[in-house]
Design goal:
binds calcium ion, 18% strand, binds beta-D-ribofuranose, nine-stranded mixed beta sheet, globular, Inosine-uridine Nucleoside N-ribohydrolase, Chain A, alpha/beta, 13 helices
Length: 307
């Protein structure tokens, strides 16, 4: 059983990542923390609360975090994720509220209480994680592993140089990459191969109540690529925790550009560093067919449980 804490900005693909957690008996969800990103913090938090109930995630704490980047103006992705953040999916309003504390406290406290045991997964801008490592630098030792969906060493999506989660808060990302741990970076280089193609969508349709989240969310997801179908970026981070052998990962030094006029948020990736020890494990390929088999198995297990 692997314990995970997920910091996210749901977000269609964040929702599909949480569904993967919910359908994976080998994962034990220790908490969900929210950050502003795809939509504002009130919506990412409301979505996380709705997903906790819809996905039957029990009493897992949900704590709201940062409402904006450390220094920058707000960047949102409403065109991609819809005004609600969950596209055309229409989940019942949540009944239970968020935990009273701040996300940063939940991250620090949860990692402190189980040093080495919890994998921290971030699928949104890295604002909460940066504040956590600034508040308590030992979180980098306490986290068993740290996995993000974010960055790119090939092409951006928010700009030609930068991926959205990093571009939304480059200063936070820079703090996080420089914090002294190894960041497992699942960037656009691999996540843009995890596409909800028509055959994949067809495999989601018979999943009963779960399909009322998966199908409208994926169908309205604005991240459609030239290759066809939107990429479910954030589910790749959870998939890595479930089975790292799905990915090829290469050690590298990753530095985040915070000053560039056209390159702000770029994750400058050096696979042959001479001046520094690697601070990242960067994914360079994904076994797409095994990925979908695993994800759709988890969804069908969850679908049966929810019906
Ligand atoms: C990332 O940006 C967000 O819009 C998605 O939820 C994902 O985390 C992809 O660049
Ligand atoms: Ca996200």
């Amino acid at each position: 059983m692997t314990k995970v804490l997920i910091d996210c900005d749901p977000g269609i693909d964040d929702a599909l990542a949480l569904a993967l957690v919910a359908g994976s008996p080998s994962l034990d969800l220790a908490g969900i923390t929210t950050v502003a990103g795809n939509v504002d913090l009130a919506r990412t938090t409301a979505n996380a609360l709705a997903l906790r109930e819809f996905l039957d995630l029990g009493d897992v704490p949900v704590a709201a975090g940062s409402a904006g980047a450390l220094l920058r103006e707000d960047v949102r992705a409403v065109r991609t994720h819809g005004v609600s953040g969950l596209g055309d999916a229409d989940l019942p309003s949540p009944v239970r509220p968020a935990s009273p504390g701040h996300a940063v406290d939940l991250i620090v406290d949860t990692l402190r209480d189980a040093p080495g045991e919890i994998t921290l997964v971030a699928t949104g801008p890295l604002t909460n994680i940066a504040l956590a490592v600034r508040r308590e630098p030992r979180v980098v030792e306490w986290a068993g592993d740290f996995v993000i969906m974010g960055g790119t060493y090939t092409r951006g999506n928010h700009t030609p140089a930068a991926e959205f989660n990093i571009a939304a808060d480059p200063e936070a990302a820079s703090i996080v990459f420089d914090a002294g741990w190894t960041v497992t970076m699942l960037g656009l280089d691999v996540t843009l191969t995890a596409l909800v193609t028509t055959p994949v969508l067809d495999r989601m349709r018979p999943l009963g109540r779960l399909s009322t989240l998966l199908v409208p969310a994926a169908s309205s997801y604005g991240m459609v690529t030239a290759e066809g179908g939107p990429a479910i970026h954030d589910a790749c981070a959870v998939a890595y925790v479930l089975d790292p052998s799905l990915f090829t990962c290469v050690p590298a030094v990753v530095r985040v550009e915070t000053a560039g006029r056209y390159t702000s948020g770029m994750t400058v990736t050096d696979f042959a560093p001479r001046d520094r020890r690697p601070n990242a494990l960067v994914a360079t390929s994904l076994d797409v067919s095994r990925f979908w088999d695993m994800v759709l198995d988890a969804y069908s297990r969850l679908g049966e449980r929810l019906d």
